[in-house]
Each structure stands twice: as structure tokens, then as C-alpha cells.
């Protein structure tokens, strides 16, 4: 499959809540997900987070998908059943290595997610230590 097809399948699997199939499209070693308010270096952690979001996920709409070699850029609408959030627009940059996704960088309004999670979101150890020191 081409990188663009791999990403399209990944998005479709997340939308359909086929997390095992989605995880199979991620590299197991050297994986990284970076978002504005969380970071995962293990595909299992990303899939656990996605599974936790199932309760509010109404739809994941792929609006645009563009590719340049192994770099794939997606624009998504994450529609929720959670009234205070509504819909979240996402810009996501995927780096594909061979036939697997190696890196995902997501760009969205982090304040919406932080408010929803009550500021209780996955964070790096360094940020958690800095926050604790600031208290």
C-alpha cells in the first residue's frame, strides 16, 4: 500500500473502532505520537487513549488527505457526543516508514481537550515534575 492508503486505512479503523487493526498499521519500535497536550511513544498507549474516547466519539470525518512520498497530511473533523466540546478540527501529519506509520503529529485546539478532561491528560514526566514544582 502507498503511504496515503495506509493513513486512510488507519483513520477508517479508528472511526470504526477497530483498534487492533489500527495498531497493526503502527511501527512497534520507534513509534511516536505528539499532540499539543500529550505524547505517546508506545502504540498501546495511543490505542488505550483512543479506546477511552469511544464514549464521546460520534464520527471521525476525513475531509482532506494529501501525500508527498512518505509524508501524509490529513484534515479531520472529530465529531463528539459531548455537548461542551462539540466538534474538534484536527490537522494531522503522518510519517510512514515502509508499510507502517512511524510518527503522528496532531494539531488542534488543546484547550478544548484539556477542559474536557479537567486538565487530567497524559503528559510527559518532565512536564508533570515541572507542574508539581510550581505548586
TrEMBL record:
It comes from the Bacteria. InterPro entries: NTF2-like_dom_sf. This is SnoaL-like domain-containing protein. It comes from Marinobacter psychrophilus. The lineage of its organism: Bacteria, Pseudomonadati, Pseudomonadota, Gammaproteobacteria, Pseudomonadales.
